[in-house]
């Protein structure tokens, strides 16, 4: 049973160690998501579950690793208790009842690598918990990069060769009659046979002599022509992980070459509520609305990098792209201090020829996200919570450049914030887009609803500049059920894309409402931001 469990759990581990790398191939996922011919909408929605798939594979690896270790502990006892004198080469103990030192020595490399892999897996698993990721993201990032050590040890782990198989089944089938052994040890020799062959105990059994009748009656139907030979199993782990591991390494090399050229920072702006806007230019950089990039600043951290959603994408007329990042944690604080001359400075927008020397910043990407689909629905509902508005900002900027070339004909934009100052991040963008649509006689193209969950300082947004937003500012939280019913009533028998980037509480409510039925024949398809 121990061998069966250890082999079965090893097969499960091989499969999951193969699959767990695929969701991390961001370039491949971005290509599949952006290709209409390769992937349909349903397939692209499945790709959005890549993070969930990665986590599921990781949890499965942890569970079956424990089962695999427990099975091998049982094997160590079974090898000593089940000593077989007939097949000495298969024994992992020197005698029956011995603590299997030979087994432990034979699995010295697999055993040592297995212990280290379990330790690495424990660190990766515990550091991946939500509490550690929120309190100290650096621990999660550094421990998760131990996966390379894990895979190198996994390559060595399969070199033990304890389990063997027989190579000469035709010459020595299981249960065959071995005259030189079975005759002497397991059978009472007839007197007539002993008189004919007095030296049978010392001489080989004649091959041309017919088998005596007593042996045929004892079911020895086949004669062994040679002793059994055994050989260690060839490791199968290589077949499972070599392909995905090579694919991942090739992609990382491609991403390193692609992101090796630093970008040029054109402007840095500090917004209320500790939000920093960085605008950049990079040669041959192309991106679609809703995608994200990974920023790396060597002066902040030599190894650490973080994903940020693009809030402005390059177009045919302008090459500038930008991100908004909320200053939370050590990395963003150090990055802000390097970008701004003084951390309390509100804004710094300098012309290209007067630009001060910003630190070198490298951009990896862009990579795909579910929000690329927001322009491919006829009707879309976009819900943002706080800084979760960033993926929708790129969509709004794209619509500002021109909306007629997209399938989208109506956009419901819901933005929930705790303080009034947060709306100033993209207040100018919302007002400009609203004014543009009014001038083009399409005021119904976008439905903007701003919700303020806290009423402190509500008077600060009042002013002529944001008059268009003041009439759309509501106090409290959205009544999601009524909102969905109203949207379904106005868009009967249509498929509406629901996109959410915000707290999990809002996400769960929207997911539940999207899966519920309505009397108007309207179908809601739920999508959620998930950095892979």
From TrEMBL:
Q: What stretch or stretches form a coiled coil here?
A: none
Gene3D superfamilies reported for this sequence: Nucleotide-binding domain of ferredoxin-NADP reductase (FNR) module
List the transmembrane segments: 12-32, 53-74, 103-127, 139-158
Q: Which GO terms describe its biological process?
A: defense response; superoxide anion generation
Reaction catalysed by this chain? NADPH + 2 O2 = 2 superoxide + NADP(+) + H(+); NADPH + O2 + H(+) = H2O2 + NADP(+)
Describe the location of the FAD-binding FR-type domain by residue ranges. Answer: 258-373
Question: What is the membrane topology listed in the Swiss-Prot or TrEMBL record?
Answer: Multi-pass membrane protein
Q: Does the keyword Protease apply?
A: no
Please provide, alphabetically and separated by semicolons, the GO molecular function terms listed in this UniProt record.
Answer: NAD(P)H oxidase H2O2-forming activity; superoxide-generating NAD(P)H oxidase activity
Which InterPro entries does the entry link to? Cyt_b245_heavy_chain, FAD-bd_8, FAD-bd_FR_type, Fe3_Rdtase_TM_dom, Fe_red_NAD-bd_6, FNR_nucleotide-bd, RBOH/FRE, Riboflavin_synthase-like_b-brl
Compartment(s) where it occurs, according to its Swiss-Prot or TrEMBL record: Cell junction, Focal adhesion; Cell membrane; Cytoplasm; Endoplasmic reticulum membrane
Matching entries from PROSITE patterns are given as: FAD_FR
Q: Keyword annotations for this protein? A: Cell junction, Cell membrane, Cytoplasm, Disulfide bond, Endoplasmic reticulum, Glycoprotein, Membrane, NADP, Nucleus, Oxidoreductase, Transmembrane, Transmembrane helix
A matching Pfam family: FAD_binding_8
Q: What is its EC number?
A: 1.6.3.1
Q: What does this protein do?
A: NADPH oxidase that catalyzes predominantly the reduction of oxygen to H2O2. Can also catalyze to a smaller extent, the reduction of oxygen to superoxide. May function as an oxygen sensor regulating the KCNK3/TASK-1 potassium channel and HIF1A activity. May regulate insulin signaling cascade. May play a role in apoptosis, bone resorption and lipolysaccharide-mediated activation of NFKB. May produce superoxide in the nucleus and play a role in regulating gene expression upon cell stimulation.
| Name the UniProt record assigns to this protein | NADPH oxidase 4
